[in-house]
Write a structure and sequence with these properties.
Largest sheet: 5 strands, mixed, barrel
Shape: globular
Order of helices and strands: HEHEHEHEEEHEHEHEHEHHEHEHEEEEE
Number of domains: 4
CATH topology of the largest domain: Transcription Regulator spoIIAA
Number of strands: 17
Distance between the termini: 41 Å
């Protein structure tokens, strides 16, 4: 969600005539779009802000701003106001569209602006600066109604608000006409899409996926994030039926112990989750299932953690984002008794990563000798002669640039997988001669 918000902010700034600076020192405007899901992101922000003080002193007309989730939290506005007096502009998640007006107000008044709305209307058709010419994010639902006990998102993003399907389809068609090949439908919980739409217009997420699948010009559809309690058999069947819907599902489990899941307010059991995994693998051939897992949640005992490891093994995840629990002020979990000691959290995290990496390696090695379809993104970060792209199952593939390379960017090409590691596949482009 934050990545797409940043693209919108960049699009708004481009319309005002701004261009991306090559360094902080050369920037006329420095704007931080923040995340508050985990404490380390908050700590990094305040560290960065502290480092900007000399830049502001050197050029007092330089604008420094902070926006997004973090400033929606109680006390954060006051903290920035008092500890960072050189910050000029602070605004929240509900009024990102107000950036041009806020900059104009700042230029006119020369006074600091703090504008944080607790709720607001959703403005459509905002300009977007996309990082990729052939991949795009599309918001379908804002906010969250789930109130997991460890999560601050419902408090800073607000309640669920589904976009009208016709507006979503209009955006997707425009993207496809502009050359976009892959869209990712976004929401804190895409599976609850449509429940708040007017009764006569109500559709669910499976219906929306079917409609997006019919858009000409697209070749891939992804979506995130899915809450297990709302994943229906209808949606799973639609994943199998839609030829453009990628064989990948990110399905955060968070824990493998029913006791911990209840304390997290996740509203499902390990048994229900494993049945979903079984149904997914039986219905969608070749699907890759990835997840999020938190260890060291308050009250988690060794037996609870072992149940998490057991679930990870049974689900055989293709990969996982793993985290040691960090308390977030304003959440129920932060006030729970029996907080797990930091050293135990980290010890469990390392044990979990070892299991996850072994499963990822096993999953990727199964692809050795197989030909997979890769959407080419371009040269890798480290070497111009090595290209990178992703399979439909969202696995990264690195391969030598063909000679001649031609115009590969944004194209889907066949790649023979020669080696699979835990996080990356390595292969060679399949040429006509080789085929």
């Amino acid at each position: 969600m934050n990545a797409h918000d940043s693209e919108v902010l960049a699009g708004l700034l481009e319309e005002l005539g701004y261009k991306q600076a090559s360094s902080l020192e050369k920037a006329d405007l420095i704007l931080y779009n923040t995340c508050c899901v985990r404490a380390n992101a908050e700590n990094r922000l305040y560290g960065h802000l502290g480092n900007l003080k000399p830049l502001k002193e050197k050029r007092p007309d330089r604008i420094i701003g902070v926006c997004g989730c973090l400033v929606q939290q109680p006390g954060e506005e006051e903290k920035i106001r008092e500890k960072f007096p050189f910050v000029d502009l602070v605004f929240g998640t509900h009024n990102l569209h107000r950036l041009p007006a806020l900059l104009a107000q700042l230029a006119a008044t020369k006074s600091r602006i703090f504008e944080i709305w607790q709720e607001g209307e959703r403005v459509e058709d905002l300009p977007v600066h996309r990082e990729s010419p052939f991949k795009a994010w599309v918001n379908i639902i804002y906010g969250c109604n789930n109130f997991c006990s460890y999560c601050i998102v419902p408090y800073v993003r607000g309640r669920e608000q589904s976009r009208r399907p016709e507006k979503i389809l209009e955006e997707v068609r425009a993207l496809a006409a502009d050359g976009v090949k892959e869209v990712t439908l976004l929401g804190q919980n895409v599976n609850s899409y449509g429940r708040d739409l007017p009764a006569g217009e109500r559709i669910d997420f499976a219906d929306l996926l079917r409609m997006v699948n019919e858009v000409d010009g697209l070749s891939r559809i992804r979506f995130q994030t899915s809450h297990p309690k709302d994943l229906s058999s209808k949606l799973i069947r639609q994943m199998a039926a839609g030829e453009k819907i990628c064989e990948h599902l990110h399905l955060p489990v968070q824990a493998g112990s029913n006791r911990v899941l209840a304390a997290m307010n996740r509203q499902y059991t390990r048994e229900h989750y494993l049945k979903l995994v079984e149904e997914l693998r039986a219905t969608v051939p070749g699907i890759a299932i990835t997840t999020d897992i938190i260890v060291g949640f308050p009250g988690e005992e060794e037996e609870d953690f072992l149940q998490t490891l057991d679930l990870v093994e049974k689900a055989a995840f293709d990969s996982a984002y793993t985290f040691a629990y960090s308390p977030r002020k304003g959440t129920k979990a932060a006030t729970l008794p029996n907080q797990v000691a930091p050293e135990i959290r980290m010890e469990r995290l390392y044990r979990l990563i070892e299991v996850v990496d072994a499963l990822a390696l096993k999953s990727n090695r199964r692809l050795e000798g197989e030909v997979v379809t890769v959407l080419v993104e371009g040269p890798s970060a480290k070497r111009e002669d090595i290209y990178t792209g992703y399979t439909r199952s969202n696995k990264q593939v690195l391969f030598p640039r063909p000679d001649p390379a031609g115009d590969l960017l944004g194209r889907e090409i066949p790649v023979l997988i020669e080696k699979g590691l835990s996080h990356t596949l390595y292969g060679e482009v399949v040429t006509r001669e080789r085929a």
